[in-house]
Amino acid sequence: MTRMSALTVSVFIALVILFIFLLTPPRYPRQIPSVPFWITLLPLFFEIDQQQIFSQYIAGPLYKHGAIKIFFGGQWNVIVQRPTYISEVFKKEHIYNKSGNQKKIPHSMLAEFLGERSICPTLKSPAETANYDLVAGSNIISARDEEWRCYRAVIKPGLQTFSHPKPILENAKKLSNIFWQLQGQCTEKGILIQDVLQRYASANLLCCIFDCSELSSQMMSIEHEVPLHTTQLTLKRYLFRPIFMSFPALDRLASVIPSRVKARKLIRQFSDLLQSQILNNRTREGERSAKNNCLGDRLISAWRDGTLTTKQLRDNLNVLYVAGQENPQLLMISSLYLLGKYPTIQEKLRQEIKACNISDASTTDWRCLPYLTATILECLRLLPPISQLINRRAAEPVWLGGSIYISRGTYIGYNSYATNRDPDSWGPDADELRPERWGTTDEQISMKYRSAKARAEFISFHGGSRACLGEKFALLEMRVTLFVLVKTLRWELDPEWNEKITPVCDSASPPLYNAYHKLTLQAGPLYPRGVRLIFEKL
Ligand code: HEM
């Protein structure tokens, strides 16, 4: 054997050993089963969607044991489902430490997106040079301890003092007109709603949270391209390729894989654009509708006075912009899908809104629409925008629930989709959309909501000290959106749409196109991707 072929054989054997080592489930924790690694890769090869994978392979062991071991992101993790276990993880943040992608997969593109190192050349802050390298890549969602408290002090008031629905109301009316206009251009079939809703969710965030009203109106004129939006769409396509999500180690080769080179370029482009747009498009003082304590103002003041470095401003802007419109957008898609699938619930909602006879929705007391609130919570329960998230790491060995031994360094995550549908908490009809389960009056619904969150039976916004800070805004946005859409339009699912959650194939498309989509689109959250709705004006 020549020296070259001996080397090739050794490399091959080393790779096989590494692969077997990586893909063999760990022995610990011993008390819970492992989902075979190939199950998470099934959609790459077969016509099967994530909901099917869940019910066929994951739900059984997960509900039985309350936790499982699963291969994701290039490593084995523990997914916790049972509410009592989840409460424990939420409460013991000092043991189950937050550990975002920057720490878990620091070389990955995702980590680069959330905490990349370049400084926008247009910015200069006094504290920048002093602080720049102290905190590499962190943001409010992934940071811990002092750093998190610092971000939270800046960000929380900016997200929670907002409550005026007027700008959302105006955008929602435009949204209704856009849907109707698009429907007019396509008489026989349903229309795709995702792209429009992404612009709508961005518009709401830009005007209400960042106080950029001009940019917000540009987002709502869908006949015009908005670079921030188009860059974000392209970036998403490149960033979330399933092969790199499953094996982020491949990102170590990012500089030689053309699609990753492109992803890196897009990350910078998006981040630069976002930063300059938020800084340069803010509504002028005199033109503002209210005295503001908005998030945009707060972030910029904190950057100017040196509380945040340029890098911290940039990382937090990225993550707030993405979390602040991706999650509401997913909830809107899922809610419109569910209401199209359950027309009687849509009609009941319409009757409630009619009966309430609201003349000015911008001053409405939303408590007079309990069925609307219950419907939103029910959509959030059935299809939580963040269906699965693995972002905690055991700082020390610990017995979860007193019976599952978790060794130090184990990654732990949640499956909100499973917890929110647990029949032990929600009954045998847990998979059904039934808003009445939350109660019929505003008091009953609020009580049920508070108790379901406190008992970790409803975890769409997670819980404990690290619960979502945008919950209040997201719920208000959803109320206004559904209020306007249900009042002005009626919709149903396009019967020709292949009803699947995260479908990977479309039987009408050529095989090559489908193969490409399998590799590029099937990762990510559980929601009715590509849903088509048929609208009727009322
Ligand atoms: C339906 C909409 C939303 C859902 C379902 C949602 C869900 C979540 C979840 C599950 C977390 C915890 C993430 C983790 O543990 O890593 C979270 C955190 C967070 N969310 Fe949301 N979110 C939504 C909307 C928003 C909006 C509109 C904003 C505002 C811009 C926002 C800002 C945040 C922030 C700042 C955190 C970090 C909280 C902390 O760690 O202190 N979210 N969200």
Automatic annotation (TrEMBL):
<dbReference type="InterPro" id="IPR002403">
    <property type="entry name" value="Cyt_P450_E_grp-IV"/>
</dbReference>
<dbReference type="InterPro" id="IPR036396">
    <property type="entry name" value="Cyt_P450_sf"/>
</dbReference>
<keyword id="KW-0349">Heme</keyword>
<dbReference type="InterPro" id="IPR001128">
    <property type="entry name" value="Cyt_P450"/>
</dbReference>
<dbReference type="GO" id="GO:0020037">
    <property type="term" value="F:heme binding"/>
</dbReference>
<feature type="binding site" description="axial binding residue">
    <location>
        <position position="468"/>
    </location>
    <ligand>
        <name>heme</name>
    </ligand>
</feature>
<dbReference type="InterPro" id="IPR017972">
    <property type="entry name" value="Cyt_P450_CS"/>
</dbReference>
<dbReference type="GO" id="GO:0004497">
    <property type="term" value="F:monooxygenase activity"/>
</dbReference>
<keyword id="KW-0503">Monooxygenase</keyword>
<dbReference type="InterPro" id="IPR050121">
    <property type="entry name" value="Cytochrome_P450_monoxygenase"/>
</dbReference>
<dbReference type="Pfam" id="PF00067">
    <property type="entry name" value="p450"/>
</dbReference>
<keyword id="KW-0560">Oxidoreductase</keyword>
<keyword id="KW-0479">Metal-binding</keyword>
<comment type="similarity">
    <text>Belongs to the cytochrome P450 family.</text>
</comment>
<dbReference type="GO" id="GO:0043386">
    <property type="term" value="P:mycotoxin biosynthetic process"/>
</dbReference>
<protein>
    <recommendedName>
        <fullName>Cytochrome P450</fullName>
    </recommendedName>
</protein>
<dbReference type="GO" id="GO:0005506">
    <property type="term" value="F:iron ion binding"/>
</dbReference>
<dbReference type="GO" id="GO:0016705">
    <property type="term" value="F:oxidoreductase activity, acting on paired donors, with incorporation or reduction of molecular oxygen"/>
</dbReference>
<keyword id="KW-0408">Iron</keyword>
